[in-house]
Amino acid sequence: MSATITILAQHLLNGVLIGCAYALIAMGLTMIFGVMNIANFAHGEFYMLGGFVAFYLVSLMGLDYFAALPLAVAIVVALAIVLQHSIFRRLREAPMMTTTLVTIGLSILLENAALLLWGPQPQSIPTPFPTKPLSFFGVYTTPLYLFCMAVTAALIVVGHVLIRRTRMGKAMRATFQNKESAALVGIRIDRIYAYAFAFGAALAAAAGAVLGGFIPVEPATGGIITLKAFVVVILGGMGSFVGAIVGGLLLGLAEALGAGYMPTGWKDAIGFFAVILVLLFRPEGLFKRV
Amino acid sequence: MHRRLRMLSLANVTLHRGRTRVLDDVSLVVDEGELVALIGANGAGKTTVLRTISGILKPSTGTITFRGKPIQGADPGAIVRLGIAHCPEERKIWPDMSVQEHLELGAFIRNDGDVDADMERIFETFPVLKERREQLAGTLSGGQQQMLAIGRALMSRPSLVLFDEPSLGLAPIMVETIGTMIAGIRDRGATVLLVEQNASLALRLADRAYVLETGRITLTGPAQAMIENPEVHRAYLGG
Amino acid sequence: MRTLKLVLAVAVSLAVAPLATAQETVRIGVVQPMTGPVAYDGNIYVNTVKMLVDDLNAKGGVLGKKIELVIEDGACNPAQSVNAAEKLVVRDKVVGLLGAFCSTSTAAVMEVAKKHKVPLITGISTAAQLTEQGNPYFFRAVATTPMLGNAFGPVLPKALNAKRFAFLTLNDDWGRSMQASYPKAIESGGGQIVANEFFQQSDLQFLSQITKVKAANPDAIVLAANTQQAVALSKQIRELGVTVPLVGEGAWSSDSYIKLAGPAAEGVYGLVEYVYTIKSPINEAFVKEFQAKLKENPSKFAGAAHNVLHIMVDAIGRAGTTDPEKIRAALEKTDYNGLVGNIKFDAKHQAYGQTVYLSLVKNGVPDVVETAKIAKP
């Protein structure tokens, strides 16, 4: 392969890797927004907690890596259920301004709790994968990157199937599209809220636990993740699952290619520029809510 | 006259929205097998009556009993499980879900094995829905969406169906079809409480009727007597 | 009631204490971040000066009096740092100030020093403009990025056996000043610049930038990053199959970086003002005491603390008085031999003459492989 094509292929691979992670995180955010009408500014903190708990389990408790990942997600989900039950369940009828302020407060609380528990040091989760990179015709990756891509892609597919095909997934979408008629067929909205919040937190925590192998996690990581997730969700359409998936991949690829072929200082600007364009010409996002 | 079983009764139901009294001491009864109409002008509170029965709104005072048991204050999920289906105003379909998914979710509270058979029965009644079972509900015509909303309500196998303005926004020929359909539901043994602004349709279908004016029941009687009542005629039948 | 009286008595005695002891000790004020984003490094600085003051006092202090440290938290926040400095000067009557870590905070504290005519030394803030303001009370005992570049640039091509250099730095004052000042010096040593790339403070992964740098086919990559990003950066560079030497300003020779980056830290070069492996009697004694008392290897912030404290005490001794104006005059004539060799101040009060170090991590230890001297600007 010629050098130009190799480099392009490398950029595309980087973009898909990061894009899958963006998509996974944004799916959770869009679900919480769509079902509960909550703009969850604490979403990135679930990612951060997923990473930290996985680190704690592997590094400090000596748990097997592959056992630690699902356990870390389960622990974060348990926390999300407690938060939903004690805070958000009471705010069902509250205006969005109130819930938004509550989620901002929650994000500060969780970040500082992590700071107290684990300190400000960035941590990488030790993985059993060999660190030696793999080369395919000059395009480099590592077993860990491939694992991340496989897990995030699989979770996106699983999430999508759960939402499209299962009874609970259909009930969620119905709640999403019209809460009143969902309640009238007997869907318990309280329970759907709890599922949506737990499911959203699970996806973010899974992303944090998996990516924590090569992107060090620290208490402040959550803020950046939340920002990226909102970019994706606005890009893809608030409350659209397909939009979150396509938007996540698009942002990942746009950042990779943009940074690859434009001055790298512009990398972050690309996502925001895309959002401004979308808001100007398609304020409902690329996809409607589904 | 044969004494029927009392199915639903509202006694002195009052409901406030903020400081406004939206329902004022409303009392009404629906007996088993009846088709009862609730008519009145726009904004009289008809929709509020239905929403209060199905648990979306909680009455300030008064009691609602279903088959002798009080249900006021229960949540909608519990009420639909007792056998009350509510086919809401403006259809409230889920625009990005398919026809089939609507009917499946209509049976959300059921876990018996007859759901598929019931779905076939709905499709027999509304063949057009069968043709479009994979289509998204948002792409259906107004009349088809109304059929879908009715089908969804029936999928819970209710003993009492609350219809809210089923004729709203439909072409005259479609209004007739829906009317026939509702009469058919009653004829197959279900009980119906029908809210309609189209009073002539409602009174033609109903056994008995109530007139609601600014939150108060002002008149009640057999539907035929209502049609002949000059007051009703002048106010609601446009004559 | 008795407790209340006791509390009152203690409070009064504490309030009176500074006045009572003002004659008996020489007070030096310290403004460092002990909370906030750089609290970890700020605390290392504070613990170092505390340890060293104890040593100095054991040897008799200065001017026949004991040295007393008064420490305030500036939190890397300009407003809080100004309040802290005001308190130190007005309430505690310190004769000199050490601080304030972050350049923006130091810039703010400089104004307090000027207003009250009290000398201030920083060993950490490297923003070039600080010494360009002609503030007569401000001294900087650390090289700026352009000075480091001028010192190291000419030796890098040979030391790294590299011709083609790519830059990948943080997109802030520091990183941009590095990319502006290093290239000329590197070219003078026979090198050539093949890529200039940046990343943001908020970036968690650098795959695009690394791919782009890789495409330029460099022999070495010059980096600027703090600990968190340095760890991710060096790991990801290796993961994308780039094997050329890495050389950086920032965290690259610190214990915390080496521990967190693990194998990815091996073979990484650091461009530093201080590293604990310097071979000299004075440094070896310092490291030994530091390891014994503070249970880690001294970082460059500990080295900076060592420099500025001794420079201040040396000036007080030569001034022969605690008059801040005379101390300021003595500071201008500094000719101090310490951890990093000889330090003097130029007319703008910028330090020069000290040695800077090229370190190379081998088996988790940053060895000194090359040194350079900071030229008089």
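qc> The longest helix of chain C spans residues 2-21.
qc> done
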